[in-house]
Amino acid sequence: MTEKITRINPEPLHETPGYHHITVVEAGRTAYLAGQCPLDRTGELVGSGSLETQVDQVVANALAALAAVSARPEHVVRSVIYVRSEDRDMLATAWRRLTGSALGPAFTTASTLLGVAQLGFAGQLVEVDLTVALPD
User: Can you give the pTM of this predicted structure?
Assistant: First the structure.
């Protein structure tokens, strides 16, 4: 299926730190993952106050969700990353941690990184929303 996914950076647009401006999916089925939160299997928040620990839990959860639909990070065609902060350094830390993880290939696609005022769980610092072109 990855051969049906094309990622494009048109020349007139600015260079990116790893993502692509456009992702084209030729055909197939799509999965929309719910926002992956830094919660463990029991629903408890992991890593209160630690962005890095929370990112690692989000990565583990996202990889499990992808595996449940027989997909890999390379099949992600859109990502939205929410970080509870207005500090650009904190957003950059989240981006680097995510792109350097086993989930990293998911962020070479069309991607948006947002600083937000609040997320759903008390103490939550990060959430990742993924759209996946399912493999045949």
Answer: 0.87
